[in-house]
Structure formats: structure tokens, C-alpha cells
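We now fix the convention by which a protein and its fold are recorded. Here is one such record, which you should read through line by line:

>
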Amino acid sequence: MYYDQEVNSVFEELGVSEAGLSSEEAEKRLEKYGKNELKEKEKVSVLQLFISQFKSILIFILITASVISALLGEVVDAIVIIFTVFLAGILSFVQEYRAEKAIELLKSLTSPEATVIRDGVEKNISSNNLVPGDLILIETGDRIPADARIVKEFNLKIDESSLTGESVPVQKNIEALPSETPEADRTNMVYTGTAVAYGRGSAIVTATGMNTAFGELAGLLGTIERSRTPLQESLDKFGRWIGIATLIIVAFVAMLGVFYGFPLLDMFLWGVALAVAAIPEALPAVVTVGLGLGVRRMVKRHALVRKLPSVETLGATNVICSDKTGTLTQNKMTVEKICVNKQVLNVTGAGYSPEGEFFKGSDKVSTDDSHLQILLLGAVLCNDAGLFKENEKWEIKGDPTEAALVVAAAKAGLHKVDIDQKYPRLGEIPFSSERKRMTTISKLEADSGSFPLKGLVAFSKGAPEVILGSCTKIFLDGEIKSLSPEMKQLITGEVREMADQALRVMALSFHPLDEELFIENNSSGDFPSEKIEEDMVFSGLTGMRDPPREEVKVAIQKCENAGIKTIMITGDHKVTASAIAKELGILKKNDLTLTGSELDSLSDAEFEGEVERVSVYARVYPTHKLRVIDALKKKGYVVAMTGDGVNDAPALKAADMGIAMGITGTDVSKEASSMILTDDNFASIVAAVEEGRNIFKNIRNFITYGLSAHIGEVLIVLISILGWQILPLIAVQILWINLITDGLPPMALSVEPPDSGIMRQKPRNVEEGLITRREIAAGLGIGGLIAFQALLVLTWALDRNFSIEKLQTLIFTLVVFSEMFNAFNWRSDRYSIFSLGIFTNRSLVYAVLTTIILQLVVIYVPFFQTAFRTVPLSLSDWGVILPLASTTLISMELIKYFSGKSSQGKTKEKTNFD
């Protein structure tokens, strides 16, 4: 990659001179290497993608059932089934199609034009035509068009946050580096898609197109298979289970009916009706609506879901891998500590808003303090950054580190615009990676207020060891004094202490100049810089960092309470990452922090043995993030990954739940994700998890509700045939029960709000699927109860010699009303309807009332009496049906009551034992 070679060797190996490539040679290389653009892998066609949405077992059974229903004349039922199947399929197809467009957006991050030296002449060409060996020129504001080795630089700083996650622009140089240097530390290289934050330089292109760092990311993104969500797996598993079980039971009952003498054709029609009724054809539609309504609620809580099944994935998530910069932190460098006059001051306020105060301990410090004023004056004058307000929001221009100093000064009333105008810069010795310092010269007038300086003054800022090494004096107690070795030792100790707190430390100094000597030498252009930067006066230290978001610590604690582990994955240095992680509560005692290089040294087996102990990954690359996610998923964890940069996109797509930042996130990260946080707030993930858990709870509850109805119907028919050789329900009645009980009530159950304490429960085990033994037991219990109710009505009707039509009408109506009572049971599987409040879910009340009205129409309207073979029921008939049907609700309320008492007793026993 040329980073380990001297500049001359790079020129020689790439066959280029300082005059650049010739046009002829550039054309040859373009034919050899191809255009400098990202190429897509061969994709699945649109038709194949659409067809893939209908591959689940449940969908196949439903389509088959709809065809049979249509052939048997049940056209309405067939249309409903087909409509719900295709609606769900089309929604999934649209989401998948958009997600696969992510790689195309990578192209937009390459620079459309590049400035090169060809044939010894500076030219602007399309970046697509760059080739290895091209000599490119770059300056502040440019986006790097290709991977390149720097050959010249003038205070060049590159913002690589979109690629590496590094929060601070990287200072570049031309020195050769050791061959084992990690990619993020190759300070003599620039990479496609990153931006020049400061300075200028020239570089030789070393890689283009898919061979660049961005190209590797594009390759990763294009080949990663997005995992199926737990909900998709659960629905398929449930579909297979209920499909096989239904076919076996229906075939058995149909053959039994033929054995008892029922006509073969009637039993075939009945068997198909019972099969269609037993298979929950409304399930895809209800799940889709439930997810859709959950998505609407999540939007109000700043979470935008791109793939509907992913909503439920959040409810099962037990690990969140979060990027640091801009996700856990504000991505705004902020001065937090200032050391002046042997005092450490704390600076309040965060971000770029110039609002804050200075404190020593709990005591507020006046901004008129001469020591603070001279330090901040130097910070403003020796600075090229800017601070401005746009659309009621404070923004910066230039290097974030310099901007942090400008903001700190503004908090003390020293606004850069005013200071620059009042004391214009007369001279400058620019920053370089070798010097590690910057010096400017300004003339302070007699009206300098509390500043103890007048006349021509040089101000310097830079690395503490460099600034301190040039100082022979210190501004202390209002006077310029000699800098003693003891004082230097104290300052060095303070630098170490700030660094241990993960603060980026910068030292400042000044030097009063001889005005006549400066003017004389500066006019001739040969004024010696060493004269300016010697015998400097030390003015103080500043400590800055990218602070955590205020609400994140609380959010991480909520995640912990919910059984969710938070892991930080960042491109920043180990010390910085660990300090932030400790402050946020991510890194705890006995937890590990691994760097990318340390991770590389571990085998897969070794890493899988340690992965559960690691809470922080620092200095990592995209491949490392994928390895972390893969190891966690192999351990059985459901992994969510947050991020905002291009570097995060492959991991976002590989994770079970990719969560992108909506404000600071790149288009690539958004398209690769399953969900976008519209406020870039980690705390919004907690709200999304709550919604995800509630959605799955509701889906499970309305499936259990439907399961009890289907089990009840099969048991009623099976026992009636075996015991009395009677068909208690005809085919059209079975289909009607299925249509109205699996229609509106489940839709209403899908909007049930979260149970109290849902975020104090552990994440569900995705291996258990949608239906557990608990749900099967509940379905069998309620289904068995409904069957028992029906058999009581059956014997009661037979004793009174009711006609077969009236008997079937009684059982038909009983099942419908029993299921309406049952719908209220499944608002919650643990809380009583009376504690929840009957009218807190008005949608369910309306759904039940509508269903009851429809059933009454079928019983009492002559046209429907003929179609459904029903007869009117008397008041005495209702006196039997309603009390029996209500036992469905009463029995479940008793179970909830006694199970609640049992849980309380266990809790008390555990508390007393503890």
C-alpha cells in the first residue's frame, strides 16, 4: 500500500514524476485498471426478489387454500386470502428493493472532479478517470477522490470519521511508516470519500474503484446476506406446525365422518371448510397491520422503521453494539477544563453554543480574571476556526479542536469576529506535523482592557511538550515570572492527569516582541521564526473532548434493566473509548477493552471464548465490526448495531437490527439499516425496544386468541361426530366464524398499549418461537372450554328435540360470543381486564360490538338465514348462550388472579430469604 515506503520509492514504483503522468500513459492505465468507480455485484432480478417474498410455508398453504375455496364456490373467502397474502408480499418487496439500493449510494460519496498534474500541467478531470500513479492536489473542503500516498503536505488534516469513526481530524505527514501500522494509523495516506478539514497537499493515487478502502466496504455491503428476523422465522415455524397439524386432524375427522355414514361430498366440503378455518389466513394481514401501527407509534418516538418485521426484532434484542462518535457522544469537541495560575477550572456548557461558565470547584470564577483572559485571547488569535449562527443553530467552520477553543473564549465574552477585527493578524508561523505548534502575531492596543499585555505579541498553541519546551517564563499571580523546574513538573503532572481523563490537551503561551525589530525583518521576509518562538511565557492548558450525550447514561441503565448489554465499537483510541465507556456505565469491573490489532491476534475460537466479556472495541475497522457481530450471533445473541458512517454500513446490514442516525448518518448507513433514529438519540432506542416488545406481545396474544377458536371448532366437531354422529356446524358457518372472529378483534388487539413493567423483563428467547407451551396450554384450555360449552348446548338442544338447524344455530352463535369474551382475555396474558380498564382499548370494544351486530344479522335477517341455514333464537335461548359464553372470560380472570397471588408469594419468599 506504499505507506511503508519513502516518497522517492513511491514515485519510482508507480512510474511517475513530479510532472505527473502523461495523457497517453493515463489512457493505458485506465484501460488496465478500469474506471475509478464502485461496481455492483450481480444482483437478484426484481422478479426474483418479488417471488422470494412468497416462499414461506404458511403463505403456500394459504394460497392453496384460496384456490380450493374458489373452486368450491367460496369466492369471497378466496379473494380475502389472496389479498392479504399479496399485500404482505408487496410491502416486504418494496422494503427489500430499497435496501438493496444501498451500494449505489456509495457512488455519490466519491468526488465528481479531481485536480491532477498531467503532462506537467494542473488539470481538473472527472474523478472516474483517475488511475494509479496520478498526482492529485487537495485542499481544505475537498473530498478525497481515490486512495493515495501523500508526497507533500502543508498542515494537512483529514476528517476520516465516515470511514474509521475517528472523531478528530487526523494530522497527515509524508514520513514512511512501519509495515505493521494499522490502516487507521497510516498518517501518510488519504482515502476515498474522506474530507480535507484543513490545509493542503499533494498525493500519488495508489488505488482506485473497488480496490480502495471504500471499494472493500462496497464489496462487503454487497455480499452480506441480511439475516431473517426472529418474527419471520417464528411465523414460518408456526405456519409449518399448524399446517401439518390441521391437515392431519381434518383428514382424520373427515374420514371418521364418512365412516359414520355422512355423504362423501359433504364431508369433503366440510373438511376443506374446517381446514381453511383452522389455518389462520388472516395472520399475515393482522401481523402486517400490527407492525404498521407499531411503526406509526415509533415515529412519534423518533424511530423510523424501514423493514416491518424488524420492529419485532427490537423486542428480542439483547445486545446493542453502538458507535461512539455522534451516537453516544455529541460529535462536538468541547473545552471542559482549563489550567491557569495553578488552578484547574471547570467549563460548563456543551457543543458549539457559546453559553457556559467557569468554576473552581463550586465557586464561580469571574471571566475578567487576567490569567483566563490572556489564555483565551491567545486561543482566539492563534486560531483559524470560525463560529457562526445559522437558522438559530450554532455552527463551526474549520478544525473542531480549534473551534472548541473559539467557543470557550466566547463563553468569556471574547468573540473571534470582534477580536480578529480589533487585533488583526500581522504574521504567522503555521502548524506542521513536525513542529506540532502554531504561532501568530498581533498588536494589542492600549485599550486592551484587563489584558496585561500591550504592543506586539506572539501567541502559540500546540502539543504540551512542545510549548512547555519553548517556555522560560510563566504568567503567574498577575506577573511574568521565571519558569522553575518544579513548576514545569507540576504542569507536566496536570497534562498527564487530563490525558488520563481522556481529554485532548493543548498548551498555550505568548511572547512580547520588539516591534521595531519585527517590522524591519518582516518587511524583508527573512525574520527568523526561532526568535519569535523562544523565551515564551507559559499561559496555561486546555482540556477538551467530545462529551457524551446527557441522556445516554440513563438510556444505557434502562437497557441494562431490560437485560440488554451495550457494547461500544469505535475507531477512537483505547484510552478515550474506555474513559467514555466508564462514564456512561458501559465498561464495568472485569469487563475487557480490545483494540483492532488485539482482536486480530485472537483466533476465532479464542475470540468466541472472550466475546461475552468485552464491552469496548477501540481502533477497529469495518471487518472487525463484522467479526464482533458474527461472534455474538454464534453465541445466540440478537444483535442491534447503531452507527452513522459509511464504515458502519456493512455491520448495520449484517446485524439482526441495524440502527442508523437520521441527522448525522450518511445515506449509505441509512439504506443499509433496518431502522433510523430521527433525532440521533441513543435514548430513542429504549423507546423503540419497548414498542418492539409490545408488538410481539400483542402478536403472540392475538395468535393465542385465534388458536383457541380453531382448537375449539375442531374439538366440537370431533366429539360431536364420535359421540352423537352429528355435524354441529356446517361448512359456511365454520368459514363465517373464521372470518369475523379472526378479523376485527385481532386488529384491535394489535394496538394494545405496553404492559406496565415491560422494560423490566428480560428479552425473550428467540428459540422459543411465537407459540410456546404456555400458549399451547392456553389455546387447548380455552378451546376445550368452548368445546365443553358447545357440548352442553348440544345435549340441552337434543333433550328438547330441537331441529338440526336450530341446534347448529345455537352452537354457531355460542362459539362467536364465547370468542368475543375471549378477545378481552388476550389484551394481556397477566393482567386482569378490570385492572387494565375495559375502555382503555376502545378499538377492541368497537370491534366486538361490530362482530356481535354482524352475527345478529346472520341470525335474524331472512336472506342470511337462508345462506347460513340459521333460525331466529328466543330470549330463553340467549339465557343459555350468554352465561355459558361468559365463562370464557370469568375462568381466565380467575387464572390470572391466582397466578398473580402465586407470583407475589414467590417474590416475598425470595425477598425474605435474601
Residues 708 and 777 are 10 Å apart (CA to CA). The mean pLDDT is 82.
